[in-house]
Amino acid sequence: MASPPRIRLLLSCLWLAAVGGAQATPDSAARKIVVHDTGGHWPGAISVHADGSLWAIGNPWLGGGMRALAIGGANDLARVDGLTPGSNETVAVVGAQGVVMLRWNPATLAFDQNAWPHVQLQGARAVRTVPFGNQHLVAVLGASGRTVHCYRYHEGGSGLLVAQSTATEEVLDFAAFRHGNGTARLLRATASGLACLPAGGAVQWTLAGQHGHVLRCDHPIVKAAWLYRDANTGEWRLAQIGDAGVLDDESLAAHLGGSEQVLAAFLLDCDADGDLDLVAKTSLGVRVLLQPELPGLAQTTEVSFEPLTGTVCVPDLALMHAGTRVRVVDDLGVGDVRWSNLAMGIQPWDDGIDLHGGGQIDTLPTDDSRIHFVVSIAPEWLVRFSHPERRTYLQVITWRQAQPSIDGRLDATSESNMVHEMIDIPASVSTSTLWPLDVTLAPPWYPIGWSTDEHYWLTIRLVATEVGGSELDVVSDPVTLVTSLSIAQRDAEEPWAFVLEYSEPGTQASELPAVVAPPPAAPDMQLGGYVIGVIGRIRALPPPPPPGGIPAPSEGSTGAVSQRIPQ
What span, in angstroms and rounded, lies between the C-alpha atoms of 89 and 187? Predict the structure, then answer.
């Protein structure tokens, strides 16, 4: 059997982007956050707080915000992984009400709730899930803190009890994994150490150590791991676990200090090089231990990052941009949830899509105004989509915010959700490429122009499908732009102030794209309007959410064909 990867240390660069813009604020800090797919590769999250309340955390590229869910007494939650990429994922919640399954419904813009009828699960302390073929194993730690109940679960069902096991000590952490023979195994950590056992059988083997964190892992060889302290030395160690037991037990003393507290950890391939990496949130911040990309490379590199401290929240990770980017979703205080970029290595996080120059608006006396943009796409973004067996699109979602205020009203529906097929992607992507982008906006039309400013938000990302397929195969990280249209206030400072509110702190109006004026019109009629401000992404504040609060757009309507612009 192949040996597991050995892990080397590389501290991450960390850039923080606040969700903000909340409709409400929790009364207590988050204890745990779980990220889930709301459909079509659009991430959302749910958080459980110290007072047992649950909150839905909106997509930060589509408004963000937090919304209270009508379930109290929650103790823990876990994502039920989607069985196909881009599918709508369920979140399992346990607590005073037993087990409740939450699943986002894009038609009703609310969460469907499926409460299990098993009374023995009332007051349950914790929950873990793992996929098994076309179903899931849901493991629930009961109110006693010693019995783990294992259920077979199909989407929409109520769970069928298949096994349970009781420890002689309090269970401090646990996880389940699928053994190579198709059966379930439990890893159960207590004050005495780690024990491995079939879901309803006797203990097969144990490993001594002080309690740390049991980590699930989606890997053909390494099925799970235990990050723990050595009972004698107190140093941090990582035991990687396979079907037959411990594959590797490695000291992390050179990387995690003896007095350093580990609050949460994940084992995954977060730099997309095929090897497992360890992401750990500690009392000093967020650390990433990366397997070296070249065999035998033992050197380490340390770069500065902004630590996530001052909270005991267990964060979650969102894998973005075809699985090559990682975001840590964490709570930095009551109501201050961040989707933070983990940029591997010493390279800064690349935003990937930029506005190339200003926009130009067609000015016709109708209710629609068509704006032409040119976007620049970085090669490291586009290369993941330049595959002969994929069709690649630019997806653009637009919605309107009336009033020149960050608290302005929202209209009844989002304006559009369009996909533009890209037909001229070069076989070898080595430099940034330019692409045209047409967006139809529909501000209210008056003969003398718009009576108020109309602020439009555009969220853009790359999406791809297999040739002949309709399901999204891979998607890029989204980028959000804001466009302000005005005639009546084109010379006023207020529209600029609105755009600058969302820009990188310190941005000046002179640094925004130049105003593009409409063509001359008849003396008694002004046609069209001005693009008075566009920014490349949201830095300080998120956009207001589209109507419905926490949207989940997935498939867009087919738009124009986009052909690469020669440079």
Answer: 25
Residues 44 and 79: their CA atoms lie apart, in Å, by 11
CB 308 within 8 A of CB 330: yes
Determine the pLDDT at residue 426: 84
User: What are the start-end ranges of the H helices in 42-191?
Assistant: none
| Nearby residues of 284 by Cβ (< 8 Å), 6 or more positions away | 257, 260, 307, 309
Tokens describing residue 408: 């302005």
- Read off the pTM: 0.85
- What's the distance, Cα to Cα, between the start and end of the chain in Å? 52
| Residues in CB range of 57: below 8 A, 6 or more apart | 19, 33, 44, 45, 46, 47, 64, 65, 66, 329, 337
Region of residue 263 (phi > 0: left; psi between -120 and 50: alpha; otherwise: beta): alpha
**Residue 557 · residue 416 · CB < 8 Å:** yes
* Most distant CA atoms of the chain, gap in Å: 89
Specify the amino acid at residue 217: C
CA distances for 500 relative to 413, 458, 509, 532, angstroms: 26, 16, 7, 11
Contact status, residue 488 vs residue 450, Cβ threshold 8 Å: yes
Q: How far apart are CA 279 and CA 400, in angstroms?
A: 38
CA distances to 7, 315, 346 from 136, in Å: 30, 23, 38
* Residue-wise DSSP of 298-348: ---B--------S---B-EEEEETTTTEEEEEEESSTT-EEEEEEE-TTSP
Sheet holding 90-95, edge to edge: 74-80, 90-95, 98-105, 110-115
Residue spans of beta strands (DSSP E) within 108-208: 110-115, 126-132, 135-141, 147-153, 160-166, 173-178, 184-190, 193-198, 205-208
Residues in CB range of 48: below 8 A, 6 or more apart: 30, 31, 32, 54, 74, 75, 76, 77, 93
At residue 52, does pLDDT exceed 80? Answer: yes
* pLDDT digit string, tens, across residues 193-216: 999 999 988 999 999 998 789 999
State the Cα–Cα distance between residues 538 and 243, nearest whole angstrom. Answer: 46
Q: Is the dihedral of CA 103, 108, 110, 113 positive or negative?
A: negative
- Spatial distance between the Cα atoms of 174 and 190, rounded to a whole number of angstroms: 9
Buried b vs exposed e over 188-216: b needs ≥16 C-beta within 10 Å?
bbbeebbbbbbbeeeeeeebebbbbbbbb
Q: Is 292 exposed, middle or buried (0-12, 13-18, 19+ CB in 10 A)?
A: middle
Distance between CA 302 and CA 182 in Å, rounded? 41
For 384-438, write each residue's pLDDT tens digit. 888 888 889 998 888 776 544 444 334 445 567 788 899 888 878 888 888 888 7
Q: What is the C-alpha to C-alpha distance for residues 127 and 139, in angstroms, rounded to an integer?
A: 6
CA distances for 121 relative to 116, 143, 363, 486, angstroms: 9, 7, 63, 58
Rounded to whole angstroms, the Cα distance separating 472 from 300 reads 37
